[in-house]
Structures are given as structure tokens and as C-alpha cells.
Specification:
Elements: H1 2-7, H2 15-25, H3 28-31, H4 37-47, H5 55-66, H6 68-80, E1 99-103, H7 111-120, E2 124-125, E3 135-138, H8 145-153, E4 157-160, H9 161-166
Helix pairs in contact: 4-5
Amino acid sequence: MDKFIFSIGIRHIGQENAKIMASFFTTIKEFSKLLESDPRKKVLKNLIDLDGIGETQISSIDNFFLNKTNIQTTKELIQKLKIKDYLVKNKGGKFSNKKIMFTGGFKKISRSEAKELVEKNGGKVLGSISKKLNFLIVGESKPTKKKIDQAKKLNIKIILEKRVERNPR
């Protein structure tokens, strides 16, 4: 499914964004909601909560599906291709049923590697602070103060990269 989303050519949706979207939709039936105006508006509001999907991507998805040719081509591809559901890699693991968010840059791991690690261990990476969030992981390089303050207000556990490095398990 992620390969299909990437291949239809939505501007600003690369392979990583396509994986994020596929894990959000999980089935082509859910993805197809983007093809109709009213359901699309509801779906786009929910996509903003995903880490890695921002206003630029949301706008591009909306613009792509405002074009009738794109809608028709996508419908035809969905009918002709056998698009497999997106499988969550691991429901169990250290981060099972945990929702995690990252802010700032990290010294020893890239953001995409960190996301992949969380997902492989059963967790879900979010893009905005909400009471659903379990952990905010704060990198040393330019973390967003607003996110940290919001997490504190909601009593979300904050884990600092500095502290993790000094206390390896």
C-alpha cells in the first residue's frame, strides 16, 4: 500500500510519507476516502496528527485530489491493481501500545531511524502533543520549547536524550 501511495505522485509525498500514510489508512478502502470531497476533509484533519505529515503535505494531498483526472486515474489503478493492506510490523515489543513523539535532533540516531525503531517495537509515532501521548523524546539539537511546555501541562513523561546517554540500560 505504501508503494501505491508513493507511486501515484502526490507532490511532497515521498517514500517515508507514503509509509506514514499507509500505516494510518491500513486498507485501500480507507485510503479511498480521499477520493470524495466530504470524507477527504475529515481524513485530512486527522492526518495532521501524524509525525512527518505537515501542512505542506496536507495541502498537496488536498490539491492532488481536487483534480478530477487524478481522482479518475487513482480509482482505475485501485480497481486494476491488487493493493495489499499495510501490515503493522510488530504489535508486541518494548513500545507496545505506546504513543511517542520526538522533538529536536539526536546525536546517535536519525529521526527516521528512531521512528522505525519505535514502530518495529509496537509503538506509534505521533506528530502533535495530545493527552493520548505517552512519551515525548527530546533531542539535544533544537527541541521545540512549545512541545515541551505542552507535554508538561498534560503530565506526559519527557525523556531527554542527555539522560538516556548517561544512564544506558
